[in-house]
Design a protein that fits this description.
The complex is a heterodimer of chains A (159) and B (159). By secondary structure, chain A is mainly beta. Chain A is built from two helices and twelve strands; from the N terminus they run αββββββββαββββ. In chain A, a hairpin with a 2-residue loop joins strand 4 and strand 5. The radius of gyration of chain A is 18 Å and the shape is elongated. Helix content of chain B is 11%, strand content 44%. The N terminus of chain B is likely disordered. The chains are: A mainly beta (159), B mainly beta (159).
């Protein structure tokens, strides 16, 4: 379907959408937690489609490649807890691991496959990702929420 | 281009923007403890007092390799049942086929942090019911100490 065919639906819903992503990173202290806060702009709702991201797997003894990070996700706009309890990042950012030192032959993964997570974050809401680090050394997380922005009551803000 | 991005990432279950608006993700992570001597392990997932239907969209997970051998074959079978409704969703699916590749090496180094893909299910479950994931076929030393599960689900305000 092209834009010409889509225009009636967009006009009816008074929507226009463009690709967009919200992303942020945080250093999570050892044995502690940190929160990535991403504020959705007041000009649009954000339709999240997929998640990608990376994390480090550092230990005092060295980079062992084992994920020690888990996260919960809250949409404070609709006051909804999307991930009920901490989800191991190895399962959702897959493979996601960035090698810090490791050993020879231990690959730093290059394929970051998007995990589907569809949710509509309303304008001005906060995407809150609280990350817990059970390791004995600080680790860094990068999270990326990818999707479309839907402008509010405007057909095309670029015109 | 925006339309292409949206369509390419649109999973089959959510077909329209209105369906997206009327539902939201509900993910749950759980660690299944298999360290004890067992023949069968049953994990119960109550859907709570929420009045909306629940869809189990994807299931993914990972489990540590057995002993020092990161390539040992884990021959565990998985069933998913809702006994209160008399519904059987899955019967004796090999774990290695359900969570693929699933295995990781907790000792780090090579063969660690691979791609933990999500298995598409789309099981629709009634509100305020519960379902069980049953692990069986434990033989001697063929089971890992634990399985980290992630249930990627969705609540439907309509349907």
């Amino acid at each position: 379907m092209d834009f010409q065919n889509m225009l009636p639906e967009l006009e009816e819903k008074k929507l226009w959408m463009d690709y967009f992503n919200y992303s942020g990173s945080k250093v999570v202290p050892a044995g502690d937690s940190a929160t990535i806060e991403l504020g959705v702009s007041a000009s649009h709702d954000f339709e999240c489609l997929t998640i990608t991201g990376t994390y480090t797997t550092d230990e005092i003894a060295g980079d062992d490649g084992v994920c020690k990070l888990a996260a919960t996700l809250v949409d404070n706009g609709s006051n909804t807890i999307l991930w009920k309890n901490p989800v191991n990042l190895a399962l959702i950012l897959s493979p996601g691991r960035v090698r810090s030192s490791g050993i020879a032959g231990d690959p730093s993964n290059q394929l970051f496959w998007p995990q589907t997570m569809e949710h509509l974050f309303e304008a001005t809401s906060l995407i809150l990702v609280e990350i817990f680090n059970s390791g004995d050394k600080d680790n860094t997380v990068f999270m990326n929420f990818e999707g479309n922005k839907h402008y509010l009551n405007k057909l095309n803000p670029n015109k | 281009m925006a339309r292409q991005v949206r369509d390419r990432n649109r999973p089959s279950f959510i077909k329209s923007f209105d369906e997206l608006r009327s539902s939201y993700p509900e993910w749950e992570a759980r660690t299944v403890d298999l360290s004890q001597s067992l023949s069968v392990k049953r994990e119960n997932f109550p859907l709570g007092r929420n009045r909306f239907k629940y869809v189990l969209q994807h299931l993914c997970g990972m489990y540590p390799s057995i002993g020092a051998d990161p390539t040992a074959y884990v021959n565990i079978l998985v069933s998913i049942v809702d006994e209160s409704q008399g519904i059987e969703y899955m019967r004796d699916m090999p774990l290695v086929n359900l969570m693929t590749p699933g295995i990781f090496n907790p000792n780090g180094k090579l063969r660690n942090q691979q791609y933990f893909g999500a298995r598409k299910l789309d099981f629709i479950m009634l509100p305020q019911s519960s379902f069980e994931i049953v692990f069986s076929n434990f033989k001697g030393a063929n089971k890992p100490d634990k399985i980290d599960l992630l249930l990627v689900g969705r609540r439907l305000r309509k349907l």
